[in-house]
Every structure is written in structure tokens, then in C-alpha cells.
Design brief:
The structure is a homotetramer.
Chain A lengths: L1 E4 L5 H13 L3 E6 L4 E6 L7 H6 L3 E5 L19 E5 L2 E6 L3 E7 L6 H14 L3 E3 L17 H14 L3 E5 L5 H5 L4 E4 L7 H8 L4 E5 L6 H12 L6 E5 L17 H8 L4 E3 L1 H5 L2 H13 L4 E5 L17 H17 L3 E2 L9
Parallel strand pairs in A: 7-8, 7-14, 7-15, 8-9, 9-10, 10-11, 11-12, 12-13
Antiparallel strand pairs in A: 1-3, 1-4, 2-3, 5-6
Chain lengths: 351, 351, 351, 351
Amino acid sequence: MIIVMNQGAADGAIERVVKEIERMGAQAHLSRGTFKTVIGAVGEEATLDQMHLSSLDGVEKVVPIMKPYKLASREFHEEDSIMEIGGGRVPKVKVGGPNALCIGGPCAVENEEMLNRIARHVQAAGATVLRGGVFKPRTSPYSFQGHGEPALKWMRACGDDLGMPICVEVMDTRQVEMMERYVDCFQIGARNMQNFDLLREVGKTRKAVLLKRGLAASVKDWLLSAEYVLSQGNRDVILCERGIKTFEDSVRYSMDITSVPVAKQWSHLPVIVDPSHAAGKRDFVGALALAGMGAGADGVIIEVHYCPSEALCDGPQALLPETFKALMGQLRLIAKVHGKEFAPAPVAAAV
Amino acid sequence: MIIVMNQGAADGAIERVVKEIERMGAQAHLSRGTFKTVIGAVGEEATLDQMHLSSLDGVEKVVPIMKPYKLASREFHEEDSIMEIGGGRVPKVKVGGPNALCIGGPCAVENEEMLNRIARHVQAAGATVLRGGVFKPRTSPYSFQGHGEPALKWMRACGDDLGMPICVEVMDTRQVEMMERYVDCFQIGARNMQNFDLLREVGKTRKAVLLKRGLAASVKDWLLSAEYVLSQGNRDVILCERGIKTFEDSVRYSMDITSVPVAKQWSHLPVIVDPSHAAGKRDFVGALALAGMGAGADGVIIEVHYCPSEALCDGPQALLPETFKALMGQLRLIAKVHGKEFAPAPVAAAV
Amino acid sequence: MIIVMNQGAADGAIERVVKEIERMGAQAHLSRGTFKTVIGAVGEEATLDQMHLSSLDGVEKVVPIMKPYKLASREFHEEDSIMEIGGGRVPKVKVGGPNALCIGGPCAVENEEMLNRIARHVQAAGATVLRGGVFKPRTSPYSFQGHGEPALKWMRACGDDLGMPICVEVMDTRQVEMMERYVDCFQIGARNMQNFDLLREVGKTRKAVLLKRGLAASVKDWLLSAEYVLSQGNRDVILCERGIKTFEDSVRYSMDITSVPVAKQWSHLPVIVDPSHAAGKRDFVGALALAGMGAGADGVIIEVHYCPSEALCDGPQALLPETFKALMGQLRLIAKVHGKEFAPAPVAAAV
Amino acid sequence: MIIVMNQGAADGAIERVVKEIERMGAQAHLSRGTFKTVIGAVGEEATLDQMHLSSLDGVEKVVPIMKPYKLASREFHEEDSIMEIGGGRVPKVKVGGPNALCIGGPCAVENEEMLNRIARHVQAAGATVLRGGVFKPRTSPYSFQGHGEPALKWMRACGDDLGMPICVEVMDTRQVEMMERYVDCFQIGARNMQNFDLLREVGKTRKAVLLKRGLAASVKDWLLSAEYVLSQGNRDVILCERGIKTFEDSVRYSMDITSVPVAKQWSHLPVIVDPSHAAGKRDFVGALALAGMGAGADGVIIEVHYCPSEALCDGPQALLPETFKALMGQLRLIAKVHGKEFAPAPVAAAV
């Protein structure tokens, strides 16, 4: 950690900082420049309290040298982590390293028949994990909020039937225990990325966690949220870029494509992209999915509906099954450029 | 609601939209321009499904005419709402209309002695509600997370002792019932502004709710979150601007000062500002508090610590008691410009 | 254009709006809802003054129906525009439609020898247009500002020698006439995207214009800036996405990848991406270039230096020649996914 | 300057950095931590090339210790700078330190009669400098672009007549010489804040410069742009905050109120606010002006029009003369809180 003192900081202030660094078990290296004094704190950075040092008199700024997360970092685990979703009644699906992942399904589970129909479509096109919301985080209290546990049962039955692991969003700590009995992968939505109690609870389960990036979260914040999950013992965290808030208003959110290579350089965790929620408009979903794989993502999560205009939620961004299928073909080509491969589509998928 | 069709939208597509509008119980007014057709849907806007209409073929965009929140809107309640925090063992403190509110206290409750000392300081300077965190939302899982229920008991005892209602952040739905026994006002933090289950739970209590604006939330989103609380029957929602994420990196968050007059024009709810969390640096807290009152805010929430360098959390932004007292004098002057008044400081405050 | 009146707007105010619409040569269609009145102005939207209508009493908002640019719009020119850079002493290079473009070269032209060396490298890898700055827009007045006209002569000689059209940034209206004698393509930098006098001046020339997107410019603003050039008679505008300012600080600018499909849907102009300036760090340039082509861009502009640590400007983002060459191979594969093709690399390039 | 090396950087890489630092005339101080090596470069920071050091192998990041601007910095000039606008035919008007400044007038000069009428209004209310645009930076090439030199003559005559210095926006280097004959203060618009040639040209004049902050410019960038002007010998630069681009869409730009105390801490230059362009809506102009003065600004620039609905430009944000007058009364009260005072309004202003 480096402590930059104000120009003209008093000797007493400098001494106080040095003492505090030593009290925390590190060594202080003083470097007096023409105008400013800089103090290097050498030792285990985790034991140094940046906030405390920032509060001391005469301190201009404190610059950390190490990353604030550990288990999520590339330094902790040099190789790409490869994770498995599923197992038991459904096959295990891999993501990370050379394994590209496609998660597909409806935004919200509206009824069992619709779910089964869409699931067959996405599987036929090559998706290997089924998504579907049963609790929906809606900006307005007057919008459809999801069917809850009954829809979860339909998801489970459908996944078992087709041999697809299921990924479902959890919104509340009180849902975790119940949901763990059904899902193969918990999804943490963008608005809950810093719901720290929820992160801890899914961290105590042994199901994979798909962690969407918050709308105002830096890549560092995102990895710190992953660290919350990892620090509870759950090592299967998949990062998901789904757009950030910017001034651009032609689409709902701006997919921050740079976060893909940045997160992959800083962390060993797989990173996938969610072009559907980023764009919010069907027209741009394909381009964003292809851009994500171009940037080196480990996969995609895409919303599909056979009749988007009847969807109860986010219809405007759902792809039609045939569009999704064509897109998968293009995604496979781009994945190859990075030495990644999606699971092959089933030979004779009955839709 | 207005539906703008694509240039060259087919007649069939236009007819479909008209039919759907009528099916939802509204009337459709067609307006064929030289290039584009525009359809006005006249009726109760709440019954119209914007998402569904957006999904239909040939629709370019859908423009809502009414605000998506109701109970929070100025149209629903023309006068400024005036709320009371406290009652029972502590006096009721008003906020809204001519009543300016000052909430003061430490960021986190570290121990009972420190809390009592700071509480006396802030009360002497003129704060009438005591704040103090017992569950702390920390970006890193390795930072101090708060003392929990024991700290809540200290807060309650301190508030009762000094006759100050207390305001404490709630982070998890599972904490609501327990906390309701202690607090006079729930605080919802920025990162939980769209934790919809939590909003609903505090909406079922009869304690005031201080709703901080999310870091990426528009004023509209913020009011929709207030609507979640209001729609459960709790009418005492106080909005709190605490900065948004922008590209500017000289401070942690950019206080969006415009949100104060905008929220007050759109809504009857009181709006206060939190200069401490916005700035993140003691040096700028005073200027932001004064700016907030200048913009017409109904009050401030400010962090104070007699020894910021020993604070376990957010020390760099805590004001010293004497700075806070001087600031209160300036805030009183600016409040008057808008016809507002803070409660007078106790005559003989024993600190 | 649609005019939404305030709830409770007086009849007189509504009449005034109607009169003004008619005075401007359009027809007014009134639609009185339960709460609000909406007025449609039907006619040539360009003749309607949105600002004026917004100023009238009782007007809540004015929603334009048509795009504010014309020559740049897809409605004006349905097919992808295909442009040519060069001609005369150097071959014409195409961009747009199936023609992918690669512009390569150093950030700044430091001396003739260095320029010639880098130019040979980029040509050998497959770039067909040479870039190189001679006037450099630098944030600090104390940084290297470019060599000016002498460097322009080196660029011209080098381009002629290798048969590569050259693309050079223009910063000031006073430079346009002189530069037109040398360059094949003017570059307008991000900070000058709304330097309207400069746009008009390059619009009067007959050289292609590479228009970088401003750091705070929406896609709409960007196309309006293109319209400035087009409206002067110059039809050869190439759009270039190079990142926008967001809160994310892991890289200098966030490449707004969504702007590629959005700009291509709204406009017929070619869109290329500049991963070098977006990332500001060599490590991420490749991923962003590939993402851009994945999103459907018509090409890339990339900085290359054989010894980045000796570059006078933006060294940290320059690719080494061998990295650039490998990247070109990957870019070719992704271009094909969209039915686009880069010009083939010269068979026996002597570097 | 501090150079942080990558974890595991080779000894050779570290030696190279040390050598380069020494070559640039500074001393290198090595500090080897458990994981990373940090190198402090002690000496005149201006002689160190941050870009170059960033380009070297094994370098993770370079952290500057000194501010990149000099003449604009508080370290260079500890006291608040006090400047004068005007002189010669019109009185000198002060800004900075205890002198609060109010600049008022129309957005664009539409005709001489309108200008004279508005000027009398703003003077009667207490404005001491007259603003009025003659070249208008308009997003669309089809909008009114200003009357040019004739309007400048009206401005000059009106200012002379009333004894008010005039402030007019300059957009192009070619206008500087001509305009210098008329104006008392050049305004540099937000979109030209990084038009470096223009900054240099006004820096060579001896007229005050009102430098608006760019829409995507950090406070640091803004001060670097001021440095461009100052470095040419012109010391009279007045900073003007006018809003930045954020995701919030309830108003055109978000006034970054924090920039006021930050710029004033970092720099000795006066800082005023432009609530009219920030808000873009009359309703919010007053609140933002008051917020600006609350934050400690040295003044305001406000648009006024006696008939906003007839304004050719930005009518929706112009205040009516009587609203402006009432606002001035409130601004005077808030200025006093910071020990500042506006010039008194003329006793018997004939409007």
C-alpha cells in the first residue's frame, strides 16, 4: 500500500502514519520528494486498513498495490477455472476453459406448456442449460412478479425430462433453502449483485452461482461480490456481463464488452454475456452475443420465446426460436477463434 | 400511451396494434403522418401493457403519457407530505413541508461508549434523529460487517436516553421483524434500493422508511421503489439522494443535485441529502450539504465522529463534532431561503 | 411530433399549441385522455420547431417521431453505403457493405524512418490504409503536440511509396485547406466531434472523413455530426466507435459495442471500431477488435509500433507488428460470419 | 511518480525501469514487497514521461504524485484569484474571492431590440455582465446558427450603453481576432473545452475567458484545459460548471455540484455555475443556481428572456425577468453564507 502525503504535510503527521503502519504489522518505507512525501507500507496488504490510513491527518491518498479480492483472483488460481452445472438427474454441463456455454429459455415461466415448448426449442438449437424466472425483479410493484414455487416445479420437471440443468434467479435470502432443492444453478440478478446477505447464503449452498454484474458496479466490485460467494466455500461462480448504465439511451443498458477481457485477466472465473437484458431489443441481441464471444466470453445466456408478443415479461428482447438457432451457428464459428466450443446440438431434436 | 409505428409498417400490423389496445379496454386513435403512423391509446394507462405493445410487429416505440407510479406522485397528493419519525418513548420529529430534518451520528456503531458520546455531540449541534449502522453493507467480505443486534440495543437505549428517534439500515428481509422492535426509521441503502422483497417487507411495518437512491437509479426508478413501500400501506417514505455513479473520479459518487427539485416536482414525498456518502471525503461534505439545502432539500443526514481516524467504517468522510456544529449554523440560514426550518438546538446540551 | 400537455393544462394553452402547430404548416390532431391531452402534429417534421413548442405554457414534453438527421439516415438511403478512400497516386480502398477495412499505423508520426518501418509492417499484415497523427490533441499543454506539416509530407511520401491511402487527424479549421493537399481521408477526433465549424469545413472538401464518436455523444448526436459533413456535399463519412466515458475505470474508455448495430440500423454509413484508443492498454486491444467485428463493424483502426516503449504518444496501447498480424488472421474469420471480407495481405511483403 | 510492477516481474524488467527513471533525471527508490515491487521516481515529475514508463515491460501501473497542471493549481497560487472583466468603455467587474458574479442575458442574440430589452431587465435585477450568443453550437446543422458579427456589434453597443462588459462564445480559431475587438470575455463552450487550438488562441488574447466544463471532462481535464489558456500568458480564466452526461434523463445534463468545491480546492481560479444549460428546463434553473452558490461557487450565468416561447434557441430554459429578479434576491442570501457578495442592483433601473 502506498500513502501519498499532502504537499507540506507536517513531520508529526508523517510520523503518525509510519507508526500506524508499523502497528498494523507492516514496514514503512519513506520517500521524501521535492514537494511530497510518499510512504510505502510493505507487508501483508490485507492486514492494512486503507480507510483508517486515509483518515489520518495530512494523508492525500492511499493507493492499494494488491487486488482486494483473493479467491477470485488470477494470482490465486492461474488456470481458467472449469465448472460443472448439474449432476444427479441431469447431465453435468461444463463451462470455462475450452467449454463454451449456452443457457437459453424464456424470461419468465408463464405456464408449464409454454415452458416445455420453449425448452425444446432452445435445446434443439444447442442450449444445454435451461433458464426461466419464477420470481421476477420488476421495477414497478404493479408488474407481473412471477409464479414462484409452482413454476420452479415445472422448471425442474422440464429440465429432468430433457436432461437439461436449470438456472433460476433467487431474489431473497428466505428463498435459498427452498430453491436449493430444485435448481442446478442460482442466478443473482444485477440489482442484487451487492445484496451481501444473499451472496453469503448462496455461497453456503453447493449449487453453481451465475453472478450478473450490477448496473453501476465496476469490474472490481463485481469480483468482490464473487469473493463473497467464494469465501463461503462455494467455488462455482460464473460471472455474467449484462450491461451497465451509461448516458446512451438508444438501448436499455450498454453492454460493457471490455469487462470480458478485463475480468478474465484479473480472475480465473468463467465470464458469459447476457445480450438479451443488455439490449432490451430483439434487433440487437444477435450482434451483442457475437460481440461477446468475439471478446472472448465463455458463453451466452439468451432469452427465447416462440411468441414474444405474448410474453408476460421482457417480450421485446426475446428471440424467435429460428433466429436463435441461426445465431447459434454463428456463435460456434466465433467461439472457435478463441479455441472454445459449444456442446453440439442434439442430432434429432423433436420440437 | 402513444405507439409510434415503423416507417412503412404494414396495414395488418397497424390493425393488430389497434385491436390489442381495444382488447385491453382502451380506445385507439390513429394518426397517419406522411411517413409514419402514430396510434394514441386513450384510457386507463395502468391497464395497458407497454411491454406487450412494444413486442408487436411494426412497433418502433411506445411512449407512456402517465407516470408509472401513483401513490408517490404529486398528482395523487398535491401538498408536500409531512411525516413523523418516532413516538412512544421518544418525541416525534417532523420532516417535509416547512420542517427541515437533520439526522446525525456515526457510520457504524462500534461500541456503546463511542455511540453515546457521538450522539450527545450531534444532538448538541441540532440533529434530532440519531443514525448508526449495525449491519454494514461492505463491498469486501473481509471488511467489518457491523455488530448486529447488540448494537441495535445500544442505539435504542441511547435514543431513549436522549429523546432521539433512531434510524438504522436494514439489509435483509430476515432482519425486518426483529429490527422493527427497536427502530423508529428503517434505512434502505443504495445497493438495496431495488431489493424488492425488502421494500415490500418494510412496507408492511408502520415505521418510517428512509429510501436511499440507488447508484444507477433514475429518479423514476427511485419513485417506483418508493411505490413498492407505499403500495404495502406504509405512507412514511423519505427519499434520500446520496450520489450516483458517473465518470468523475475525484470523489466516490456524484451527488445528483438536480434530483432534489425533480423528485419534489414529481412527488409529494420529502427529499433529504446524504453528503457524507456522496463525497466520501470530509473536505467536501459541508459544501454538498449546503448545496442540497440550496436546491430545496428537506434535510440532511450526516456522519459525525469525534475521532474519524479510529472509525471502523467510512472514517474519511466523518465530520468532527465542531465542524458539524458550524455547518448546522450555515444550513439553518439556507433552509430559511426556502421557508424551511430545522428544529432548534437544545439550549444547554451537555456534551 | 407529439405534444403531451400537463395534467390540467388550461384550454387556452391547448388552443395556443394547436395554433402554433398550424402556423408552422402542420395539422394538429387533439386526443383528450382522462387525465392528459395529447396533440399530434402531422406534417413535415423538419418545419416544426420542437424547442418553441416545448417553451409554450402547459406543455409537458414534446416527442419527435422522425429522426433529426436525414442524409445520414437509413430511410434516405436503404442500402449500405460503400465508399472509397484514395485514388490518384494510390489505389482506391473500399469500405462498407461486404468490404471490411483495416487502417493501421502509429499513433503519432515521430520521424520518417519510424513511419516507414511501421507502415511496412501494417501493410504486410493486411492493413490497406495508413494512419499517423501529425497534429496531436493532447490533454496537457506540456505533452508532445505532433510534428505538423513536415510529418504530413512523410505520410504522403510513405503512402505513395507503398500504395496506401493515408488518414490523418485534422484539429483546426485553419488546417483543412493545407491538409487537403496531402491526405486521402480526414480524421475528426472524439474531442472535435461537435466542433461544428470543423465539420462544415471538411464537408466542403472531397476527401473521405473518418468521424470518431465523441466521448459523451449519443448515437443520435454522432449521426447529427455526420449530417453536418454530409449537408455540405461530402458523402463519404465513415463512423468510428472509440469508446465513451462511463464510471468503469479499469480502462480509459468503455467501447460502446451496441453503437455498432444501432448506428448501422439507423444509418447507411459504414461503422468501424478503434479498439486502441478505447482500451488504452495493449492487452485488451485484440479482444475489443474481435468484439467489434463480431458486432458487425465494417472494419478496424489499430495502432501499431515496433517499439511501443519508445513511442512519443500512446505507446501503452500500440500492438507489436507480430501481434497485429496474428490478430488480422482472427479478424478475417469473424468478418466472414457477417459476409464481410478484408483485402488480402500482400503475398510477399518485405518488412 | 510511483511505478507498480506486475506480480512476478523479471529482475531485468525492474532494472530497465530504474534505468529509464534515471535517464530522465530522477532517482529511483526500490521497494520490494512480498508479492510486488514498487519503484518510486523522485525528482521533477514534469520531466518524467508517464506514458513511456507505462509502456515498459512488467509495469502494472504508474501513479502520478503531482497534479499534471501547474499554473492552474492551488499550490502555484494559494490565494483565490480575483479577476476583472471589462475596462475601457465599460466598468471593470470583479469575480473571485469575496466577489460573486452574475452574468445574464439571452441564449442567442436574435435582434437588437430584443437584446436591449433583455439586457435592461437583467441589469435591473443585478447582473453586471451581459451574455448573448452570436455563433451558436447547434447539434443539428438545420438549427439556427446565430447572426454572427452583426449581432456582436449589437452586443457591444448594448454593453457600452448600459455600462456592462459583454461575454460571447467563440467557436472557431478564425473568429478570435475579429471577436477580440468586441468582447470583454470569451466564452468557450462545453463542446470546445478540448479544442486545444482554440484554447491556445484565446490564451494569446488579453480578454478574460469563461471556460465551460466539457460534458465528459473530469475536473482534472478541465483544469488541464485551463492550463492551455494560462500557459499562453492569459491569466484570467473563469471556470464554469454546466453539467455532465450521466444516465439520468429527467434533465439534459446533470450538474456536477461536487466539482465546485473540488475545483476550488485544487485550483485558485474562480468557479461559477450555469444552471440554465444544465437543467434545460426553466422549472429547475432556480434550484440549481441556489445549489451552486450553496456549494461555494463564485457566481452564476443565467439565461433570461421576456418571451421564452419566441426565443430562437433554448427558450425552454430561459427565466422570465421577474423570476430572475426574485432568484437574485435568494442568491444574495446564500452568497453571504460563504462570505461572498454580488454587486448591488442599480437603484433606479429603468426597464
